[in-house]
Write a structure and sequence with these properties.
19% strand; 4-stranded mixed β-sheet; alpha+beta; Nucleotidyltransferase, domain 5; single chain
C-alpha cells in the first residue's frame, strides 16, 4: 500500500479516537486543526449547533500577506493569533483543543501556543 495512504488511514483512526472524547459546546467550543504540507487551518466549532464560529488559515488573505512561507512554524503562529482574535470577536474565550490526529509538536504546538498568548484558554 502507498505510504501516504497508510499515514492518512492512521491519522483518521487517531482523529476518530480523539473526537469520541471531545465535544464543542456553546460555552466551550472545539478548536479544530488541520494541517497539510503547504498550509494550516483552524476552526472554532460549536458541535451541538453544527456551526463554525470562527476560522483562520494561511490561505486567508489577511494572514497570508504577513507571511513569506505558509508551511512553517511562524505561519502556524500567525494562524493561532488570527483564530484567537476572531474567536474573541464572537465572545469565545474558552475552547477545547482538537489536534486532529496530529502529534502535539511542531506547527500544531505553535498554533496552540500562539492562540493561548492571544487570549484563548484551553
Amino acid at each position: 500500500m502507498d505510504r501516504n495512504k497508510v499515514k492518512t488511514i492512521g491519522r483518521t483512526k487517531r482523529r476518530r479516537r480523539i473526537r469520541k472524547k471531545l465535544l464543542g459546546t456553546p460555552q466551550r467550543p472545539r478548536l479544530s486543526v488541520f494541517r497539510s504540507t503547504t498550509h494550516i487551518y483552524a476552526q472554532v466549532v460549536d458541535d451541538l449547533a453544527g456551526k463554525t464560529l470562527a476560522s483562520a488559515s494561511t490561505r486567508d488573505r489577511l494572514v497570508a500577506e504577513q507571511l513569506k512561507n505558509t508551511g512553517n512554524k511562524s505561519a502556524a503562529a500567525a494562524v493561532g493569533q488570527a483564530i484567537a482574535e476572531r474567536a474573541r470577536a464572537v465572545h469565545v474565550d474558552k475552547v477545547v483543543f482538537d489536534r486532529g490526529g496530529y502529534k502535539y509538536h511542531g506547527r500544531v504546538r505553535e498554533l496552540a501556543e500562539a492562540a493561548r498568548k492571544a487570549g484563548l484558554s484551553f
